[in-house]
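User: Um, what's this?
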Amino acid sequence: MKLKRSTRAKLSTPDDRMTLVEHLGELRSRIIKSLLAVTLGALVMFLFYDPILTFLAQPYFDVCKAHPEFGCQEKFLITGPLDGFSTRIKVSGYGGLVVALPVVLWQVWRFITPGLHRNEKKYAVPFIISSVALFLFGAFIAYFTMPYAIEFLIGYSGPVTAAFTPNKYVSLLSIMMLAFGVGFLFPVLLVFLQLVSVITPKQLSSWRRQAIVVVVVTAAVITPSGDPYSLIALAVPMYVFYECSIVIGWFLTRNRRKDLAAHPG
């Protein structure tokens, strides 16, 4: 007796339909693949933990060297026996997510692809590349502004001696890099919403004043350090990206109309 392997429904156009069970099965498959990619990435980060921690700690060490009055040393302080290991796990987890980001974004795109027209699916590779590039650029900006944030936080703490634990420092830097990375994905979301006709470039153009307020408030909320340097470093690029998304939206929607006119089916 020959067993036949079950296959998931493959959709080629938005007019096709999937049942709820098929949707859940597809979602489960994408989540499992994403988790496997993150796990493999975390394993790589775990093996190369020492040089990675040295790289992440450099902003703090630079501040200690430049400001001897802060009393901090170019070393971390461990206050508990599990601090070192928990920091390794944290670095591995966050690093694994960054390493697996292309795979995760590809799985997200594949999950939403059935709802797009054929001419819209060709943006898969640009979507992945631009998302990864913007996320890494945002993480780099967070890393670059971290010394200024540390100087601000220590300088306004009063007469104290700074002695950071690796766990808390890595948590702050990781959340900063994650916040900046997600914030820099803002234009990708706007371009996608224009691509699927949820919003239009004309609407975004008319929302400029509101966008400035939303961008500043969002930057203030998602920036964990609360210092003005990080706020400015996140808010300014986000608004620049907002303007760029309008220009890209005009271009894409114009091409979309041409494609639909050339291939009405």
Q: What stands out?
A: Residues 30 and 108 are 7 Å apart (CA to CA). The chain is about 75% helix and 0% strand. The two ends are 43 Å apart (CA to CA). The chain has one domain: 20-259.
